[in-house]
Amino acid sequence: MQSRQREDLRIDTDAIRERYSLVDFLESHLGVKARGHGKYVSFSACPACGASKDPMSTRISVRNDSTYKCFSCPDQGDVIHAAELLWGLSSFLEAAKALAGDQGGRYQSTLPKRDRAQEEADAKAKTDLMRTVFSKLQLACQEFHSEPVVMQYLTGTGKGERCLPIGVVREAQKRGMVGFLPSNASAAKKVLMQAIGKDLLQESGLWKPDKQLPGIAYRPLVFFLPGMSSAEFRVVGPVKDGWNKSVRYGSLEYPYWWEGTGETSDLQAMVVEGVIDMLSAVAMGWRGHIMGLPGCNSVRQEWFVAASDRYEVKRWVIALDNDVNTESGRNPGQEWAARVSEMMTDVKLPNYIHAPEAGDLNDIVRGRAAQGLALTVKGRTK
Hints:
The chain is α+β, with helices and mostly antiparallel strands. It contains 15 helices and 17 strands. The chain has 3 domains: about 1-115, Zinc finger, CHC2-typedomain (DNA Primase, Chain A); about 115-250, Alpha-Beta Complex (DNA primase DNAg catalytic core, N-terminal domain), CATH 3.90.980; about 255-380, Dna Topoisomerase Vi A Subunit, Chain: A, domain 2. α3 runs parallel beside α4.
């Protein structure tokens, strides 16, 4: 027994951690690719609680290729802990011994042969293709910047309309964030054919070969993400049964970002979900930066780190939806707000949660418009 204990003590866990890449190990065993690069990398699956339903979501964040932390369960650890879970071993020590070679190089034998240079080249080619397509589309949208049906949806005060000031919408168009297509699907198809061409539309995945019209022709409101590698297409008005209100195409590299107009010393950054809430915050008088998450499930810790460094953000305000599901009793928006706060706190970014009283920021804008009240934030009106 004493000899075995001495043998166990000779296992150098630090050397094991340096020997193996945690990111490579997780990619191999979780069956999903890592996203991001540098200090922070994220995965949509966790060694303990498994994979998210959304492959673009963030379930765990990996720091410095050495430790990971899950935002859906309490699990966290290093490559040895991950091996213990994913190999079904009985202890941390057994996992360390396996990685040290006591089981015949089990880790190496499970790693698929990968041509990283080819993977990167393929990903770059796809991203370049999408940038070409979305750049052409953005230019085409300028001709329809006053498309009446879409503009009415954003600025109207009727049922289901968004009540946004036209000046805010115009500024979003000027910044290249918002674009309009004809609200008639056949007319939109014609514009897409002229601006992009059928071959590029099909190659990029925006038009399925077995369909008479591209699906985006039915979604005339377009939100372009920074970098032009991704865009979201949104239905205007009622949504048909079985349809998604919005669809996003391309590689998600960055979230939506609204650069603030306040004094540098006063600037904070707000986190909301999507472009409509982003424009609602602007309409309410918010002058700081705004990050619009393209779906809460898509949030990545590295986004907050990069934005904080670039814009010297002093504090983050998390203003995600506050809706309680009547059937489950859950509040998904505030659950995600807590996760976002945890992501920020984990990397020492000052933050606090400031939830709407109910619903989202656009509900506040619409509510005040219905009462004929001016929009106001912190004593300012607009």
